[in-house]
Amino acid sequence: METVPMDLHEAMRYATLGGGKRLRACLVYATGEALGAAPEALDPPAAAVELIHAYSLVHDDLPCMDDDDMRRGRPSCHKAFGEATALLAGDALQTQAFAVLAAAETLSPQARIRMVEELARASGSLGMAGGQALDLKAGPVATIEVLEERHSRKTGALMHAAVRLGALAATPEIPPALDDYGRALGLAFQIADDLLDVEGVALVVGKTIGADAAAGKATFASVLGIKEARRRARDLYENSLASLRFLGDNGRLLATIAHYAVERDH
């Protein structure tokens, strides 16, 4: 958007277009295609979920949150544009996500409303924002139940929502097995993240390594140990595959995404 305020729009582009896995958008497309959704109906929810994800990363990196200087292999948004502009960029990206859904002519009015509800719930106090609040209070000791509660919100809620958004583009009745898949995938992804924070290479991962340990936060890796954390991630991966059986061959892309989530190096 080449209009004023130019620096804000530049920061928004920086946060959304500069690298990243686009995994949540892939989940929208893979789920929708598996259920027979029209391809053009999947573009708005895929864009919306990525806009929410980008906003969350901008805000998570701020000094008042996780205080990370590196994201996607380059300076975090607040390091490149300043804290105030980064804060506003995150705000604007969040509202843009809902604008995209509200204006989606390829979706029925009912589907738009359901998608707005899903994305709002996943982003709010009972989802991602609530998970971040729990994470800010996290200490070096935690039970597995506490970790799963925290990360099912902070990380898992938006991934789960991406699956549900893809399903809603095809049907108003979301198969319960897809909820099982989305929940398992979100936790498996977070365990893989925790392992990368211990074993990863910063230039490959694209963000600061060892940040959780430096902040004194309990993680799946620190609570379970490396070997047991890997086993837990593998169990969740197997659970996610079992949830896809009802789709037959149509679930192959979702299965591939689940494999990537636990085996990735970044």
Set out the fold topology.
Elements: H1 6-17, H2 23-34, H3 39-60, E1 70-71, E2 74-75, H4 77-81, H5 83-102, H6 109-123, H7 128-136, H8 144-154, H9 156-168, H10 176-199, H11 202-205, H12 211-215, H13 220-224, H14 226-243, H15 252-263
Antiparallel strand pairs: 1-2
Helix pairs in contact: 1-5, 2-3, 2-9, 3-5, 3-9, 6-9, 7-8, 9-10, 10-14, 10-15, 14-15
Cofactor: Mg(2+)
GO cellular component, one term: cytoplasm
Organism: Acidiferrobacter thiooxydans
Summarize the entry for a quick read.
With 266 residues, this protein is an all-alpha fold. It is built from 15 helices and 2 strands.
What does this entry look like structurally?
The structure is a single chain. With about 270 residues, the protein is mainly alpha-helical. The chain has one domain: Orthogonal Bundle (Farnesyl Diphosphate Synthase), CATH 1.10.600.10. It is built from 15 helices and two strands. It has helices at about 5-15, 25-35, 40-60, 75-80, 85-100, 110-125, 130-135, 145-155, 155-170, 175-200, 200-205, 210-215, 220-225, 225-245, 250-265; strands at about 70, 75. A two-stranded antiparallel sheet has the order 1-2. Helix 2 runs parallel beside helix 9. This is Geranyl transferase.
**Count of DSSP H/I helices:** 15
The CATH architecture term is: Orthogonal Bundle
Distance between the amino and carboxyl termini: 30 Å
The ordered H/E elements are HHHEEHHHHHHHHHHHH
Choose one word for the global shape: globular
- The largest sheet has its strands arranged as 1-2
Percent helix: over 70%
Kindly report the CATH topology: Farnesyl Diphosphate Synthase
Q: Describe the biggest sheet?
A: 2 strands, antiparallel
Assembly state: single chain
CATH 4th-level superfamily:
Farnesyl Diphosphate Synthase
Q: State the low-pLDDT regions, or none.
A: none
